[in-house]
Amino acid sequence: MPIMSAFMTPGTPILLSTWSFGLRGHAAAWPVLEAGGHAIDAVVDACTAIEADPEVDSVGYGGLPDRDGQVTLDACVMQSPSSCGSVCCLRHHLHAARIAREIMDSTSHVMLVGEAADAYADAVGEPRENLLSPEAAKAWESWKRDGTDVDQVRDAGRPVDQGGGRLFDAESRWAGHDTIGTLALDSMGVLAGACSTSGSPWKLPGRVGDSPIVGHGLYVDPDIGAVTATGTGELVMGVCGAMLGVEEMRRGADPTEALVTVLQRIESAYELEDNHQVGLVAIRRDGRIGSASLRGGFKVGYTSIDGDEVRDPEHVSHPGESG
Ligand code: GLY
Questions:
Q1: In terms of Cα–Cα distance, which of 176, 174, 95, 180 is closest to 137?
Q2: Catalytic: 107?
Q3: Probe ligand 1: pick from 197, 204, 240, max atoms within 8 Å of CB?
Q4: CB distance 28 to 15 below 8 Å
Q5: Which CATH number is 195's domain given?
Q6: pLDDT value at position 120?
Q7: Parallel, antiparallel, or unpaired: how do β-strands 300-304 and 14-18 relate?
Q8: Domains identified in the chain, total number
Q9: Residue 195: which domain range?
């Protein structure tokens, strides 16, 4: 059920996503907002479209598998602290964001995980699907053959936006972490967010990153704003990145300033590795947007009544260090 905020103000809708491929999701989501629909429907539609896109190798079908060659999917959706849903480690169902929304709407819980989450998806009529695309299987086989170290933190390139769905290539040794995170402000002034990921390629089986964890990969406070994250989930998790960004906006920070504080907190908490990257996007409840990343290579998809745009982030902490 769409949420109400005490401060709702009508206005023009906007969509903001991590990575240029976010615009593929906006193509599905914008008609919802343009017709006066709800932010939560738009963000779930955006993720659903990207989950089905085999060219996006970090989300849904086409996503790269874990160490054992199994694709597992994580997602969460959020409208407010009392209206959020999450699913982790789905192995048989593609539309993780839609399932997270179902958990939010139809249960008294926030998060379901693993086999039981797949069983829940069966029970609500989600179709079972093969999640491993032939191309992702080929990439995994080649990684197995190369014997690349499974420790992605030490031995990998950062995800770089190559202008389409592919973030991981042979040069980057296929490793990194990624996510589609989409935020929407609808014409009624209501915010929502969703994020969906296949997690880090070649991850240890069972690994879950920031994306499906409320407050880490996504946080929405209807009276303040919304933040979502992409990149090395472990870094975002250690500082509760999305919630920290929203809390900084609550303290009066401009959205990009708020995200810079999140990145500074990460840099003071971690010894950064060469392959680390974090990208963040934010919408304040008045429609002001922000974006920031640790390193170059991150792009932002933005859609408004003026059309679609791929933008560089407003702040890059280490601009000389693109992947
Ligand atoms: N940011 C996605 C992940 O680390 O799983």
A1: 174
A2: no
A3: 197
A4: no
A5: 3.60.20.30
A6: 98
A7: antiparallel
A8: 1
A9: 14-307
